[in-house]
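Researcher: Go.
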Amino acid sequence: MSLVLPSMAARIILFGATGYTGELTARAMVKAGSTPILAARSPERVQALADELGGLTTVVADVTDPSSVRSLVEKGDVIVTTVGPFARLGEPAFQAALDAGAHYVDSTGEPSWIRRVFEADAEAKNAGIAALTAFGYDYVPGNLAAGLALEQAGADAVTVNVGYFFQGGFGASGGTLASLAGAMLTPGFEYRDGSIRTVRGAKAEHSFATQGGPRVGLSIGSSEHFAIPQIAASVTDVNAYLGWFGPRTAPARYGAAAVAGITKIPGAKALLGAGLKRALPGSTGGPSKAERAKSQSVAVAEALAADGSQLSFVELNGPNGYDLTAEFLAFAGRTLATVGPADTGSLGPVKAFGLDALAAGCAAAGLKPIS
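Model: Structure:
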């Protein structure tokens, strides 16, 4: 891999700076020494945040006016966007990056949007950019764990299973809830026998033997399905599991199956989507700093041989997912602006920065392997 080096430190534009995740990210960027341009739809709110953070430059932009989003970026810039739900609101920022030739980073966890970005690989290459989707708690930790597990397992690994869990209380922001609800209404995917296949979400569950005991997760479409094959030619199957449900795992699985059935009824999907949009409008705040401090993130990955035997297992522990997301986005923005990506196209975290650099960035954010 050869680095795609910027001629000088590029501009970083943080779009969605006044939202819950956006503000956390702005603070993380400034703490790390970056001076992002803050972009949001409310001039008063974005200016107040910019003043608090030392007098940063601000721009007003709104996804309802795509031209305002397009005007944010120029060739060689880095746009980091937290404006979601991405399946509904993400297109203007991504298209602006493609049109301008600006590197792109987002905070989504939505399977349909992850697929949208990865399937635009040729467009991103043609634009000469790195497009990094789901560069937060969803789904950097699992990519790192998988990369470390594959490094240990070697070329005999054919299957990778990844799991996401938490310890302590779990509080979700309005944006997270809106994204999760939207994801329930769209098909998921899996990487099976060397190709991406469309499947319903939560169709399977898997148990991992973590240091905290057995943990069970439900299958979900994630960036690992696209990203792990980029770094391991021997891998034919990738599975990702979300373990947020605890004792409600089985009911959640059955509920997902029911929703999948209902959405096949003509008109039902549109009605459900409209109802969820009214009930979960999006960015409505999230857990406080004190509440976030009560929870920790756990990510695991196992690499399996063709006979199903486990070749390696990696467990990572770190702080709350929202804090990790802010730190990861700050790392990606800063690294793209100063060092550049290792390649162009729609990239997973390891492919974009290399395993060692990603591990160092994650460790700086507090996410580390446990022995």
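Model: The chain is about 40% helix and 20% strand.
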